[in-house]
Amino acid sequence: MDIKTLFTPFPVLPTSRLVLRALRQNDLDDLYAYASDPEIDHYTPWTHYKSLAEAQIDLDSFISEYDRHGLGAWGIEHRAERRLIGIINISPPHPRNRRTEMGFTIARTHWGQGYAAEAATAVIRFGLEKMQLLRIEAVCLPENLASARVLLKIGMQYEGLLRKYQVWRGKPCDLQMYALTADGRDEQKSE
């Protein structure tokens, strides 16, 4: 699997209500609008933006990832609103074991409407079919019940609690591990 080839040009993943696409500089205002919400601090390892300049630094970093690694974060664009409502990404896959980790954030104004599941389903399909991944993982804080529901809804299995798994904002935290495997997806299709 040659990531650079597969991600050049960066793949656009359309769904019924969304378009997953490369981030662009003109996404800055939308990125800042949803990621400056202090409510997201409860569920992400990063804190909300306090200035447009902070959002610009992250946006530049997201965009430079496309050149450095081929793959990077997809911007989640709402088709009807024609604006960015979130981000979903997968980490560079482990070359031999063909596994990756997926993560997403959605604007609070769009929580509870199925957008995270819709975006994640498209990324999983791309990962398993085009990237030929064997395993896609996702983690969330135990108190992030909404993300846990999304991960189960899209067919991931809860695999357990990872104690002191990551340091978030200087504090070790437990995370719940969810995963979906290529053969697990095949089993779901046949049921």
Write structural notes for this entry.
This protein has a single domain (3-190), classed as Gcn5-related N-acetyltransferase (GNAT) (Aminopeptidase). By secondary structure, the protein is of the alpha+beta class. The chain is 33% helix and 30% strand. An 8-stranded mixed β-sheet has the order 1-2-3-4-5-6-8-7. The longest helix is centred in the first third of the chain and has 18 residues, at 52-69.
Write the layout of secondary structure elements.
Elements: H1 3-6, E1 13-14, E2 18-22, H2 28-35, H3 52-69, E3 74-78, E4 83-90, E5 99-106, H4 115-129, E6 135-140, H5 145-153, E7 157-168, E8 171-181, H6 182-190
Parallel strand pairs: 5-6
Antiparallel strand pairs: 1-2, 2-3, 3-4, 4-5, 6-8, 7-8
Keywords:
191 residues, alpha+beta, Aminopeptidase, 8-stranded mixed β-sheet
In the CATH hierarchy, the architecture is 3-Layer(aba) Sandwich
Whole-number tally of structural domains: 1
Q: Tell me the fraction of residues in β-strands, as a range.
A: 25-35%
Evaluate the radius of gyration: 16 Å
